[in-house]
Each structure stands twice: as C-alpha cells, then as structure tokens.
Write a structure and sequence with these properties.
Largest sheet of chain A: 6 strands, mixed
Strand content of chain A: 25-35%
Number of strands of chain B: 0
Oligomer: heterotrimer
Number of helices of chain A: 9
Chains: A alpha/beta (263), B mainly alpha (311), C alpha+beta (554)
Number of strands of chain A: 10
Strand content of chain B: under 5%
Chain lengths: 263, 311, 554
C-alpha cells in the first residue's frame, strides 16, 4: 500500500530577482492499495502533479517536503537516491502525461524498455526481446514498433509504448499522470480500458491523476479531489455524486451530470 | 556548386586592387622587365583564356607555380599541410574533448565552484587575443623557463634517428598545440554546458530518473547521446574556420604551415597559390558540410523527418 | 637615453672604421673559418629577439623596431652595429596638375615639414632625416644642392612673394585666383605600416598649417600602388630601397619613365633634367657619370618632384661569443666579409646560427627575387665584382681586373667590357670556373628573356671568350653602368645550367648532383656550399674547402 500522510510541498524559488516560496500541497493524506484504482482529480495547479512526482522522489532539488510517504511501511522520503533507484520502476512505475516529451529522442522505444529490463531485471538478449514483444502486445501495440524512434509514433502509440515501458518490471503500483490528455476520444477510451484491465489482471495499484472527473469516475473506485493544495473531497464516485462535501465538488458534479444528460 | 567556387575563386583575386607585377617596387625593374614578368605569369593572356587555364590546372590538382615562391603550389601545400593538420587537428581534438568534458561536468554540478570555474575560464579562453596569449606562453615557457623550444618543428640540427626525430617534433609542437587548445576549449565548454543544461531540464531526463536508471546511463546514454548530433555538426563546421587560427600560431611559433602561406598568397596577389588554397578550403567546407549532414543522419534519427525541430 | 645610445654606436662605428683604415684589403680574407652555417628561419620579430637573447642564434640582421634595439642595447652578450643605407622615404606629388604643378608650392611644402622632429619622435634616433635624392652613403652623393630647412614662415613668405594669397578659411589661393582644393595623401594603413601612416598624418598637419588643405588617406598597400600606377592620386608617401648606382635617378625622374609600370610617378618632365639623366644613364666613363650625376642631383633639388623625408639605419646584432666581424659606417656586421673571418671568441669551432626572417623560396637563381632567397644564394654564387664595405666602390672578385672602353661600332659608339678572370676559381664539384661559364650565363639570361635580368642583359651585343680566363662583353650602346649590370650578375655553372629543361620551374636545391651525392644542383663557386634546406626550419651551408680566395699567410 502507498500511503501518503500529511504531505506538504513547498517550492523554493531562487532566481536572482525573486526569492520566495510557493506552497503546492498542504498536509494531504491519501492511500492506494494493490488492485485498486484511485483517482486524484482537480484543476490544473491544484497540486496533483506535485503529489504524484513526490512519490518516486522526483521533485526538483531544494523543494521542501514534510510528512510521510509510506510504501508498504517504508518512508520513501528518508531514502537516498540509490535506495530509491532500487524501488523505482520495480515497485512504482510511472506513465507520464501524453503531452510530455517522455522518450529520449535519439533512442528507439524498444531500447528504453530493453534498458530497464537490463538494469532492474538483468534481462538481456533473446529473453529481453521476447519480453519486449509480449509487453507491446499487452499494451496493444505491434511488436515491430519497438524498433521505431519516438517521433515516428503517433500520440496514441506513444502512450501505449509508455504503458509497455511502465509494465516492464512488473511494478506493484502505477502512477498515471493524465495518461489520456492530448489523445482523441476513441484512443482515450482504449488507453483507459487497457489500464483498467491491467489493474484487474495483474493486481496493480493505480493512482490516476486527472482533471477530467467523468473519466476518473468511470474507472476509479476511490476519488480524491484537490483544490489549491488542499484535499477537499474523498470518497467513492457514488459518495461524491450523492453527497458532495464541498461547494467546489458540487459544482463539478453538476457539470458532470449535465454533460451525461446531453449525451 | 564547384563551378561557382571556381568562378568566384578566379574573379575574386583578380578583382582585388593591384596585381602581382604592379606591386613590384624596385628601381632595378624597368617597365619592360615588368611586362616580361607579366608574360611569364601568363597575365598577358585574355581573361577567358586565363580562366580556362585556371580551371584546367585546378581540376587536375596541378595548380601551377606560385608567383611568390616560384615553386609548384602543390609542393608548397604538400610540405606545409602536415604541420598545419597536426597543429589544428590535435588542438581541435584536445580543446573539443576537454571543452566537452568540462562543459558536461559544469552542467551536471549546477551552482558548484566547478561550474563557476568553467564559466569563468571558458569566457577568458574564448575572448583573449590569441597573439597575446601565444607570445606570453612563448616568453614564459620557452624563454624565461626554457622548457620548450622557441621556434619551428625541429631542432637545428635535428637529432638522428626516427624515434628521436618524432620526439623532437612532439616537443616542438607541444607549446603551439597547447596554446591553441587553451584558446579553443572555452568556446566548447560554454557551448556544451549551455546545451547540456537545456537537455538536463528536458522531460525525458526526469522520466529516465523515474525509471531508476543509474546516473551514468542518464548522463551518457540519454543526455550525451542527445547532445552528440549538434556537437558533431559544430565540430565539423568549425573545421574550415579554424584555418584562420593557424595564421597567427604559425607566425608566433615559426611553423611551416599553410595558414601563413594562404595569407601571403592573398595579400601578394599570388593567384595560383591563392586560387589553390581557396579551392581546397572550399572542398574542405563542402566536405565538412556533407559529412556533418551524414553524421547527423546517423546520430539523430529525427533528422530524416524533421531536422533540428526540437533543437 | 636613446640619443646617447645612438651617439655611442655611431662613435663606435667611426672609431672602428678609423682604426681599420679606409682602405679595404682583400688579402686579409680567405675561405671561411666557420665549418657549418645554419640560417634558421624565424619569422616573428619577437621570437627572433628571444632566440638571440637565449643564445639560440648568433646573428640577427635588419632590426627595425626601436623597442628591439633598446632591449638589445642593454644586453651585455650582444654587440649591435648600425649603418646608413640606401633606404629612402619620400613624399610625392602629382606634378601634372594644379596645385602641385606649381614649383614654388612644392618648395614651400618641403620647407613646411619639420622632418627632424618627426624622425626623432617616431624613430627615437634609429633613422636620419634625408635632404637629398641620393643618400649620403652613395659614392655619387652630391652635397652642393639647394636645401630647404624647416621654416614655415619662410615658406609662407615665398608663396606671398609669388602672388599667392590666403582666403578666409586660411586656404591658399593661386595668383590666378584658384583656391587649392582639398588634397588626399595616400598612405598604407596604420595596421600594416604604423610609422608610415603616422608620418602621413603629421605631413598633412604641417602642410595644412601653411594653407594647403591635406588629409591622409590610409589604404591597402596594393590598392595604393595600383592607384600610383594609374597616376590616379594627388599625393603619396612611399619608401624605396635605392641602389648603389645613381642611374636609378633615371628610373625615378626621367620623363621617359612616366609610363605604366615606370617609377616616375610624380610625372616630372623637365628638358634639362632629362638631358642630364640621359647623360648619366649613358655616361661612357666614370668621370662623365660623376658630373652627370651631380648635375642631376642639383636639378632635382631645384625642381622638387618629391620631398625626401628620412632614411632608416640598418641595424644588426651579433653575439659576443663570436669575434672577427667587419663593421663599417655603411655595412652592419651581418655581411659576407664577417662570415669569412668570424670564429668563436673562445673554445673550439662550432656552428654559426644566423636568423633568416623568412623562407628562402624556390632558390632558383632565374626567378627568385626575394632577399631571403639571395641571403642564401649570395653565399653560393659569385659575381665578377664585389663592393668595398667602406666606400661602396667596386672591387675585384672573380675578375682580377677589367677595362671599360668605348669603341666605334656599325651603329655608333658602344661600350666594350674586358674582364680577366682568376685562374684558380672552381665550382663546388671541383670543375674549374672559366670565362665560358660567365659567357654562357649572360647568353642564357638574354636568350630566355628572363624578366629579373632583362635590364641587365638586354643591351648585350655579343660575348666572346678569347681564352679560358678572358671575357669580352660588347654592348649595343655606351654606358659606364654596363660594368655593374653585367659584372654584378651571378656567374652560374654552365655544366649544370645547360641541362635545365625549364628555367621557370627549376628547383636546383631539390635535385641531387650527378657525381657527388653530398651536393645538389645548387652549386656555385662562392665561400659556402649548400647542404640542405628543410622548409620552415633552416638552411644548412658548409665551408667551401677549396674556395678560390686564398687564405692570408698567418
């Protein structure tokens, strides 16, 4: 179980002209279990991406972080970079935002997968090639695409390649940052279905960050809503619709219902 | 392309004011003697005829006889090229490797003393006048502290034997190569550092960290491999330009090289020598451009679709 | 400080020349004592200086930066020598058009120039003001000429007396009412010739002060020369290396030389001057030459086609580890005579290292015209005559004696030169040098119309060899200077040169001698034998063991 306890994140600005700090997250607690899909929703700037990047320890150096992030009982905030490296991707993998420039442009997507297989599992050569092939199939991609460079793939293909890469080392938890933005509606649904299927089949714990509440509500069993760095809502999708705890959520839910009526 | 180079080469030097014969200021040379000299140089022929002769001699790599030295231009270049190639090649390799290494180190340790040192020394190296630096080095390490020779590529007389001769050559080239490397590394260091800082800030580096990759993988496989294509391009495209750096170095250290020859050929209206030198320089430029395109294609997969689109 | 140094140097020069006596004695000289001579190629003047100071070289000639001379004068291990030479720096006018076609304006311009001060300021005493058209060291120098000492008031007065006035802007107006238009003074740029550019600025200031609006116009040297060649200029400054023979005055000031490629750039054209210069050029004997030369110099000082400004000293430095150098007030220590007698001040013989400030080029006696080539070839090839280092008069060399006669020919009188050659001269490969070698050389140069020697040999009618050691050269016309033009040519080995296929591309230094593997085809009869040229590094020469000039009995 990943359990975030009273996490606060403060970014330090240290340019020549400005000196100051921005609080991105204030004492937020939440948890995700294996086999569970949790969604973290909120407007952009609400702190959800910061929370996601804080878990594998990827916040910029100098950022002030307090609270605890427990992975099966171990506080990740106390670990060194090397200790973190042993957990990263083997326990916690990440699917970046679709719009992100997440693949190194001069390496084929297959090479990215091959690299983590070799680094974390010691898998090389034929064994690695077979695994890449099955990972691509699992992500709904043709195996031959492994030889392509990132710029040679479409947005949807790239996102599926990112899923294949994330699953390479059989992680326990998958952090997904807006996995479907920048994708068209049909591809969005395909990617979400794949993720949902994987969570069920492999018993993955999935933390899904999205500003798209309907999408989140359609897959998640638990929803957390952030606003201005504060956790304002927490519950099942049904709880949220029937009994919103904040004005903000109510507004969100109303918008959602209107949308459903129209369609 | 080559035709344009030929025409330009021919016209450029003939359009410059003065000519090789008119520049003779010697009361022993009567107008008749000057006319005879003009005939000897073939300057009495019409321009189209001169041009055809020039094209023929250039394309056969014959190049004719230098007006200034009276020796075949090809001989002159052959005896001078090895020194210049060694001087520029070695110092370019040293300065680019050293500069790249320092630039990377600075980018990886942002805000450290090392980065400040690299930025400062890079700016100094980049902006100091080469003549001043080289003369200072010569005075310091060849005169005040006579560790290195004062001039040339060989001792006078040279030591006997192949190995001793090679050692003597290296000993003579040490100071010139060192000075050029010193003057050259700064540009590389600053360039690489800036490019590397930009690359290290890219999403794909953060994602590589997220995948728990060891540092050396991130630095070399992800960051450096991305840096390589523009670096190679700069390296190759700088080749024709560094020839100018040879002029001063060859003068200060009394080296027998093509830089000096080129300068004298141009200022002395030595059409055959200037034409040949610039033709070869043009070939070098074209060659370096082709090679850089080729290497970019090999090292950067994006180049086939969208050249340099992501910078 | 500088002035006192110069005074000391000059004093030293005069004392030594006094001590030696003014008569040069060839019998004191023989084959060189030096066994190995290295001409070390160092181009950069700073590096040359460092090499001398570190003892890496022994002789450094042609110093011309005052700072270098200053630095060396403090060095106890180095002996400086200083000599007046044939360098001359002139201000020229275009005398074809207004205003410089007015004689009184040219004379006043001369008088308006503070030449002493300019020379003192810019050269710190390492040059002397020049007031004549031949330098004082010339054997044909005429002291009795019109002088124009610096006096701007006198200059203004002369102009006022001639009817010139000054307008409101202070600009000179001719008696006919024409104001002097702004004048451009062409000079090289400050980056290529800093002192020359500065002199041009100062001349412009001095002339503007008496109402001649002059501005200096620095330009690329080649561009400037081509403007002069096209006669497209108003004023210019230019330095010349004049020659030992005064007939260079013909090349500079005869109206026949005001043609494309000719050196009468000012365009002076005066019947009396032309007549004197013709007499000088075609003087049958030395007496006639002397009087014509004197007359021409007097006329020039009256006509003022150009204004002489200064003459640079030649300065050289020799390490005190060597002794025996010959120094006169006209010859610095780096001369042939020194090389014949120099030896280490103490200890065994060792190689002598001499700075060569640029690459010798083709080392081809037919095409090479650079001083750097002839610094090498001058030690290899001999001429029939040599020059006395004290008086700069002609003395015997390969020729023991000669006569100059004027004989009547089918087309009028002509000069006949008869030389008696030494009988013991040999080429470096051991073959004897005879009059047939000299005859072959002159004929080869003439037959091939070799540009460099065209002026020397074009007037040869024929060359005879009555015997192996007598040479008779008959010219087409009369001139005393034919002696120098012919006898000053290098004598080349016939047995080598007759096999040359193309003199233009002949590279004798790179071809092995067919009989002697230690020699190349670059052989002569001179005191040093060419051994090796490593481009960019050095030229190695060795002592000619069988040099014909016999060692004095000691």
């Amino acid at each position: 179980m990943i359990s975030v306890e009273k996490l606060s994140i403060t970014y330090k600005r240290q340019s020549a002209r400005e000196r100051g700090s921005v609080k991105a997250l204030r004492e937020v607690s939440l948890s995700v279990e294996k086999g569970q899909i949790a969604a973290l929703a909120g407007e952009s700037g609400s702190g959800k991406s910061s929370l996601l990047m804080a878990i594998p320890g990827l916040l910029p150096p100098g950022t002030e972080v307090t609270g605890r992030i427990l992975l099966d009982g171990t506080d990740l905030l106390t670990l060194s970079e090397e200790e973190l490296n042993r957990l990263r991707w083997r326990k916690i993998a990440l699917i970046p935002q679709g719009a992100m420039n997440s693949f190194t442009p001069v390496l084929t997507v297959g090479r990215h997968v091959e690299e983590v297989l070799s680094v974390h599992l010691g898998l090389t050569g034929r064994a690695a090639a077979e695994r890449i092939d099955s990972l691509f199939t699992l992500a709904g991609l043709e195996g031959t695409l492994a030889g392509r460079y990132p710029h040679e793939l479409s947005g949807g293909q790239k996102q599926r390649a990112a899923i294949a890469l994330a699953l390479a080392c059989d992680p326990d938890y998958l952090l997904c940052d807006e996995p479907t933005t920048a994708l068209d509606v049909i591809t969005q649904k395909g990617v979400m279905d794949t993720l949902k299927r994987l969570a069920e089949e492999k018993g993955l714990g999935l933390l899904l960050v999205s500003h798209d509440l309907p999408l989140a509500a359609s897959v998640a069993s638990r929803i957390f809503i952030l606003k201005d760095g504060l956790l304002v809502e927490e519950g099942t999708p049904r709880d949220l619709i029937t009994n919103p705890q904040s004005v903000h959520t109510a507004a969100l839910v109303n918008a959602l219902l209107e949308l459903e009526e129209e369609s | 392309m080559l035709a344009a180079v030929l025409v330009l080469n021919f016209l450029l030097f003939r359009m410059m004011p003065g000519d090789p014969v008119a520049s003779i200021i010697d009361p022993n040379f009567s107008p008749e003697a000057k006319a005879a000299l003009s005939r000897m140089y073939g300057l009495d022929k019409s321009l189209p005829v001169q041009f055809l002769l020039y094209v023929k001699s250039t394309l056969t790599f014959d190049f004719g006889i230098s007006f200034l030295t009276g020796r075949p231009v090809l001989d002159e270049l052959r005896s001078r090229l090895p020194n210049t190639v060694f001087l520029l090649g070695t110092s370019l390799l040293i300065s680019s490797f050293l500069g790249t290494w320092l630039g990377m180190a600075a980018a990886l340790r942002r805000g450290s003393l090392l980065e400040k040192g690299v930025l400062w020394s890079g700016a100094v190296s980049f902006s100091f006048p080469s003549f001043f630096v080289q003369l200072l080095l010569l005075m310091a390490f060849a005169s005040a502290l006579p560790l290195f020779p004062l001039r040339g590529t060989l001792s006078v007389p040279p030591p006997p034997g192949g190995w001793a001769l090679a050692g003597d050559y290296l000993w003579h080239m040490a100071l010139p190569v060192f000075s050029l490397s010193l003057l050259g590394f700064g540009g590389w260091a600053l360039y690489v550092r800036n490019l590397m800082v930009k690359i290290l800030g890219e999403d794909f580096i953060l994602l590589a960290r997220a995948r728990g990759l060891p540092r050396k993988n991130i630095v070399w496989r992800h960051a450096f491999r991305t840096l390589l294509p523009p670096l190679l391009t700069i390296f190759l495209l700088s080749l024709p330009g560094i020839v100018s750096g040879a002029v001063i170095t060859e003068t200060v250290f009394s080296l027998h090289g093509v830089g000096r020859f080129l300068l004298e050929a141009v200022t002395g209206h030595d059409y055959p020598a200037a034409g040949a030198s610039f033709f070869l320089l043009a070939l070098l430029t074209i060659g370096a451009n082709l090679l850089s395109d080729l290497l970019y294609g090999i090292t950067d997969p994006r180049v086939r679709l969208d050249r340099g689109g992501r910078g | 400080m500088k002035k006192s140094l110069i005074a000391t140097l000059l004093l030293l020069v005069f004392l030594t020349s006094g001590a030696f006596g003014s008569d040069f004695d060839l019998a004191r000289y023989g084959a060189p004592k030096i066994e190995d001579l290295y001409l070390v190629i160092i181009r950069d003047p700073d590096a040359q200086l460092l090499a001398l100071q570190r003892g890496k070289v022994d002789i450094l000639g042609d110093l011309h930066r005052p700072v270098d001379v200053e630095a060396l004068s403090k060095n106890k291990d180095v002996e400086l020598s200083l000599a007046s030479g044939f360098h001359g720096f002139f201000l020229g006018f275009n005398v074809r058009t207004f205003p410089w076609n007015r004689l009184e304006l040219r004379r006043s311009a001369w008088q308006a120039l503070p030449r002493e001060r300019m020379v003192r300021d810019l050269f710190g005493g390492y040059a002397e003001p020049l007031s004549t058209f031949l330098p004082p060291v010339s054997p044909y120098f005429e002291p009795g000429v019109t002088e124009y000492p610096f006096d701007p008031e006198a200059a203004r007065k002369r102009l006022a007396e001639g009817g010139w006035t000054w307008n409101d802007a202070g600009v000179l107006v001719s008696p006919e009412g024409e104001a002097v238009p702004p004048q451009k003074l062409l000079s090289p740029t400050a980056s290529s010739a800093p002192t020359t550019a500065e002199i041009a600025v100062r001349i412009a200031e001095a002339l503007s002060a008496i109402g001649i609006p002059v501005e200096s116009e620095p330009m690329d040297f080649s561009a400037m020369i081509s403007r002069l060649d096209e006669r497209n200029f108003q004023m210019y400054v230019l330095a010349w290396q004049m020659t030992r023979d005064p007939d260079s005055l013909y090349a500079f000031y005869s109206s026949k030389m005001d043609v494309r490629g000719g050196y009468n750039m000012p365009g002076i054209s005066d019947p009396a001057l032309d007549e004197a210069l013709d007499r000088l050029r075609f003087a049958p004997d030395e007496g006639a030459a002397r009087s014509a030369s004197s007359e021409a110099q007097k006329l020039l000082s009256d006509l003022v086609p150009v204004v002489p400004i200064y003459s640079r000293y030649t300065i050289s430095a020799v390490s005190k580890e060597w002794k025996g150098t010959l120094v006169t007030d006209r010859t610095t220590a780096d001369n042939l005579w020194s090389l014949l007698v120099m030896e280490p001040a103490s200890g065994p013989m060792r190689p002598l290292y001499m700075v060569q400030s640029d690459e010798p080029r083709a080392l081809n006696p037919f095409t090479s015209s650079s001083a750097y080539d002839w610094q090498v070839m001058g030690l290899i090839y001999d001429s029939l005559i040599a020059v006395d280092p004290y008086t700069l008069e002609t003395i015997p060399w390969l020729a023991e004696s000669w006569t100059i006669e004027t004989k009547e020919g089918p087309e009028g009188p002509r000069t006949v030169l008869t030389f008696s050659l030494r009988k013991n001269a040999r080429w470096h490969d051991g073959r004897p040098l005879t009059s047939r070698d000299a005859a072959f050389t002159y004929e080869f140069l003439k037959k091939n119309g070799i540009p460099r020697y065209l002026d020397n040999v074009e007037n040869i009618e024929n060359v005879d060899c009555p015997d192996d050691f007598t040479l008779v050269v008959t010219m087409k016309n009369t001139s005393f200077w034919h002696l120098h033009r012919i006898a000053g040519l290098p004598v080349l080995p016939r047995h080598i040169v007759e096999k040359v296929a193309d003199w233009r591309s002949w590279l004798p230094a790179s071809a092995k001698h067919p009989d002697d593997p230690s020699l190349t085809l670059l052989i002569g009869s001179g005191p040093f034998v060419f051994r090796e040229y490593r481009p960019g590094e050095y030229v190695r020469m060795g002592r000619n063991e069988t040099f014909w000039l016999e060692n004095p009995a000691r």
